[in-house]
Amino acid sequence: MRKSGVLKLVVLGAVAALMLIALASIGDLARERKGRARQVQQDIASKYAGTQRLAGPIFSVTFREHWTERTYNKEKDTWYDKQMTDLETSWVFPETFNYSGEMEVEERYIGIFKANVFQSAGRVTGAVVFPAFETLAKRKGSRVELVSANVCVLMSDLRGLDSPEFRWQGEALEIVRGSDLDIIGSGVHAKLPDIGNLFGERFEFEMDLDAKGMGSLTFVPIGDENTIRLSSAWPHPGFIGDFLANDRTVSDEGFAAEWNVNGLATSAQQDIARVRKGPVQQLGVSLVDPVNVYSMTDRALKYGFLFIFITYAAFFMFEMLAGLRIHPVQYAFVGLAQSIFFLLLLSLSEHLGFGGSYLAAAAATIGVITFYLRHVLRSTGRAFAFGGLLVLLYGVLFALLQSEDHALVAGSTLVFGLMALTMLLTRRVDWYAIGSRAEGAVS
Predict the structure, then answer these.
(1) 0.90 exceeded by the pTM?
(2) Confidence of residue 1 (pLDDT cuts 50, 70, 90)
(3) Residues of the chain with CATH 2.60.40
(4) Could you tell me which CATH class the domain 48-290 is placed in?
(5) How far is CA 420 from the centre of its chain?
(6) Which residues, in sequence order, are bridge partners of residue 169?
(7) Backbone phi, psi, residue 25, to 5°
(8) Which H or E element spans position 320?
(9) For residue 327, what are the contacts with CB-CB under 8 A and spacing of at least 6?
(10) Closest Cα partner for 385 from 369, 363, 397, 399?
């Protein structure tokens, strides 16, 4: 009697292990499709433009510094004065930096896979104060000779820069490719006019800055005072970077956000002035897909074994309490149907969207299992009761997937509730008597 029950549990454990292998294979397929989608995004970025990070305008002053250095000659055992010259660059950052722009988002496809690309139209305004000329010298008693003064704008992917126009004191300057900085990416620059009269003065500037890219648009707060305003009709923004927006609104019609960052709160100027490659503080927006079908399917698969376990436990209860004989192959068919649910969900969601695909896959799975159990359990009522349990399970799973922040507490509550319900319903059951009846039925 006991041996037959233990043997049945061992066989069911082996069947459950096979279902786990099936779920793992479907998980591998989901990750493969996710990798393919990521590769498509990279292909689109290689032909369009990638994620964009903007920094500028940043002003560079290049000069030659001449000085006299006391030098020792070992051969002649004497000291002498040697004339030294070095080419130096000094960086000047805006006193105020203001950006106001709007993003238009478009979905680009290769086959069934897509990427979110954007085009932004913006305007930069601000002012810069150049230091006194004598502060350029890095060595005491040296003489400084001006070489050039440029304004630089940096962009992580220069292919996305669309004919910028920089106006200096109302005068349009000629912009050419290349910059004095490569800390962020490639860039453009323009030569400032009348460089001898820059120092100790304050100047205003304007720039039309239209850019295109994919995935995200961020800004480096390089001014002493930074105000950045960005809006779009895209209703699913992700606010990223090192600074939170001071004011933001998100609705079905789109979003609008404003950042106000003081230069004392950011190390961007110091990082750029040291021409140090590495992380630079930034802020901005990423274009988020509201429902990533691959991530949702992967999350659903994590509950796959729980579904199969609950189903098998209910099966076992029916078998023991109703005196039925359910073959392990029948367990396997039901578990396989539940495993294929996740495969259906993955394949359909690439075409129909996640919500509709989940409904179609769940309806098909519950329908075929209920029809099958009508014969296995030898009762239409039992089959529909089991179907109702599956409807509840799939409904709870969908709710868990929609509420990521509360998924853990909801999932653990569900498991505990099912365990408590099982213990409540079977608290007066004589399992030895059930086993004896099952063994007598077999003989």
Answers:
(1) no
(2) very low
(3) 48-290
(4) mainly beta
(5) 39
(6) none
(7) -65, -40
(8) helix 304-321
(9) none
(10) 369
